[in-house]
Design brief:
Strand content: 5-15%
Number of helices: 9
Largest sheet: 5 strands, parallel
Amino acid sequence: MSNFLHIDDLIIRYPVLDVCHKDIVSAYEILENCFKNVNKLLVAGNGGSAADALHIVGELMKSFVLSRKLSHELCKAIDNNCEHADYLKDNLQMALPAIALVGEIGLTTAYSNDVAPDLAFAQQVLGYGNTGDVFLGISTSGNSQNIIYAAELAKAKGMYVVGLTGKSGGKLKDLCDVCIKVPEKDTFKVQELHLPVYHALCLELEREFYGE
């Protein structure tokens, strides 16, 4: 067993994912590095994968299973600058910076209508992405064109690209620094395995940054 407790537990509970173990660990290491270097994660997908993108951001931007108390330094800054310091300190939680590109309805509909629908994610990568950030593209087939365009631009901007796909990896796998290809082909079966994978990644990240 490794030092990655939640990833090891994932493989115990879902033995079918053992073939992905190395890639899951590699994806975790890219994400850990990203956050340690004060970079951010951008996530995108379509349909059920769009819901997964929102789910991932929800687990990273607030407490998942561990308490995320504010640092002493941040509490002091809040005391010195905020009228409602006690309420803020009692309720805010530390966050790992992540943005779901599927949530900007005004921007994506305007861009899709005015310019090019399949570049709506790439446009946001252009606007948000910086060197050292990570783009996580979720596509059950690995062939979603809007995800591929976003991944291409992410590479051009010096970002890391992580893919979460089905068994073949599609065209997306060739653009990825790491591609987690769960061993299923049918869309719903792929999605059923994506959720425990990204839960394990989020749990492992929370343990690293906010564990005792």
